[in-house]
Amino acid sequence: MCKMPLQVDLEINGTDKTELQEGARSIALKVHPEWSKDTLQFQVYTSGITNQLIGVWQDEKNSQLLVRVYGQGTDLFIDREAERKNIEVLHKVGCAPELLAVFKNGICYAFTIGIPTTTTSIVQEPVWKGVTQEMAKFHKTEGGDVTKASLFPKIQHFLNLIPEKFDEARQKRLEERKYTKVRLGKEISDLEKCLTTLGCPIVFSHNDILLGNVIWDELTRKASFIDFEYGAANYQAYDIANHFNEFAGVDEVDYNLYPSKEFQCRWLCSYLAHYFGKSKTEIDEKEIEKWYIWTNKFALASHLFWGTWAFVQAHYSYIDFDFLEYGIIRFDEYFRRKEEFLGLSPKEQ
After folding, report:
1. Of 48, 294, 315, 317, which sits 20 to 30 A from 136 (CA to CA)?
2. At CA 110, angle to CA 105 and CA 114, rounded to 5?
3. Which Enzyme Commission number(s) are on file for it (predicted)?
4. Kindly report the CA angle at 265 between 86 and 258, in degrees rounded to 5?
5. Helix 285-316 with 323-342: angle, nearest 10 deg
6. Does 167 score more than 70 pLDDT?
7. What class does CATH assign to 6-110?
8. pLDDT at 215 over 70
9. Residue 310 and residue 155 in contact, taking contact as beta carbons nearer than 8 Å
10. Alpha-carbon gap, residue 173 to 13, rounded angstroms
11. What confidence tens digit (pLDDT) does each residue in 244-299 have?
């Protein structure tokens, strides 16, 4: 029988390191009352740019639990109840760690053994093949209603949350690029018309498989995913495209690292074999080509998603990260690739 997570009446100040640690200590002792409060060890993780994450353990670091404190204002665009349900559903099928506790502004869950991938490790064969296997398994999970993709309603929601005007300095940066709400709204609408006619399947998707959310365990040679706050029904190719965009990194974004067609086709062949339960030799080249085209077209939607998301964060978040610049980088890449990716079509037979 599935154990229900503990409900803890506590709010943690994630912006203060001491209060974050004390809050994590309180949660850990609720989950593990046998632990001694004076012998606990802590590690603050910094891979995320919206939430605060801290690990707590007593003796063995691999037995640590993770306490995640939600970022300021993130409840404006993330359904926390849906996130908790996602984790519970995914845990049952081996795609997520166990949810241990829920508190007022965050959750506590089990540690996933391994290390986050990097721009270097993600292209190493055992790692990317492990990702294809895990993503195929994830996409076969029955995670609620998959009749309607969340992608464009979510982007529109982000667009609506962007303020009409930022402060003078930031507004000037946007106007220099002509990234107005009206212009972005038209791009979103036009791209939606283009992508929704492709016939791409809708599955339960992670929607945020950035490199820090892929955990590679060298011992078991297995890839796992973490952080399911954006999990929802979506276009299957979008989840793949979004992952490929993340090859560029976050802190120092370099789109020269976006995977080549050759790499993508090998990756897609492995993924489709796992997803359809076939051998790689049974995956038709035409099928791979179709998914390659879908994936790169949906890569454009990924830029619009995270670009609008970043502009919202620029207005609401207190985290020390230049969200406005990150949004500009995503829109710059969208416009740089738009003609090329929308122009992709199947080879003449």
Report:
1. 48
2. 120
3. 2.7.1.82
4. 75
5. 150
6. yes
7. alpha beta
8. yes
9. no
10. 32
11. 999 999 889 999 999 999 999 999 999 999 999 999 999 999 999 999 999 999 99
